Amino acid sequence: MDLAMGAQDGADGMGVPHTGTTIIAIAFDKGIVIGCDTRVSIGNYISNRASDKVTPLCDNVFLARSGSAPDTQLVSDHVRHMVHQHAIEIDGLPEVKTVANLCMQLVYNNKGANGGHGLSAAMICAGWDKYSGGQVFGLPIGGSMVQCPWAIDGSGSTYIWGIMDAEYKDGMTRKETEELCIRAITLAMSSDSSSGGLVRLTTVTEEGAERRLITCEEMEPFHEELDVRGIRNGGGGVMV
């Protein structure tokens, strides 16, 4: 499928919203946790501080998006449509690797979009299916696909490779995985000016998907940030 006509030319221009961001997905013993920050920027201007960069492609598979917002939204919209048709054909939920492969093929086959620069779409596809359980697929810019126990991407990911290498371990529980996701994204937000706002988490297991919103009152402060946990806005407060 050719997305070159739909993608906006000059994806690196100041007029195109970017999800310069932090996205993360981790597999645990019974499913996956996928999360993101909520800041969207146009150049130095924050156009949205409470966006949702984790998009459901079907009931059991979700896509975390970073890069150019128009490009990643195009990919998610097309894949969601194809996955819906596929689910009708098989009369059930699709496999995670099938959905991830569709995302990869769209990016790989549209290297001529945006004036020959290709789609600016660095994404993570993760979910649960009855065949292989929880799975995480990294989809970096260029159209490759790599299955891994955890994946991070976006501008904020530069700052959290260390914490992920140090704190991830096989056989983590759901609670441990969610706490690691929140801590890693919060650390990235404290260091990366393109990441910020709130933290959105989606946990997918055999029972289904559960979404959470973590506000600044629940985030651990880093780098001498003001600790606002437990503080409620009573007239003067902290804006994120």
SSE arrangement:
Blueprint: E1 18-19, E2 23-28, E3 31-37, E4 40-42, E5 45-48, E6 54-58, E7 61-68, H1 69-90, H2 96-108, H3 113-116, E8 121-129, E9 133-139, E10 146-147, E11 150-153, H4 161-167, H5 174-191, E12 199-205, E13 208-214
Antiparallel strand pairs: 1-7, 2-3, 2-11, 3-12, 4-5, 6-7, 7-8, 8-9, 9-10, 12-13
Helix pairs in contact: 1-2
Overview of this structure, please?
By secondary structure, the protein is α+β, with helices and mostly antiparallel strands. 27% of the residues lie in helices and 30% in strands. It contains 5 helices and 13 strands. Strands 1, 6, 7, 8, 9 and 10 form a 6-stranded antiparallel sheet that branches. It has a 5-stranded antiparallel sheet with strand order 11-2-3-12-13, with helices on one face. Helix 1 packs across helix 2 (96-108). The longest helix is centred in the N-terminal third of the chain and has 22 residues, at 69-90. It starts with 17 loop residues before the first strand and ends in a 26-residue tail after the last strand. Residues 4-14 and 235-240 have low confidence and may be disordered.
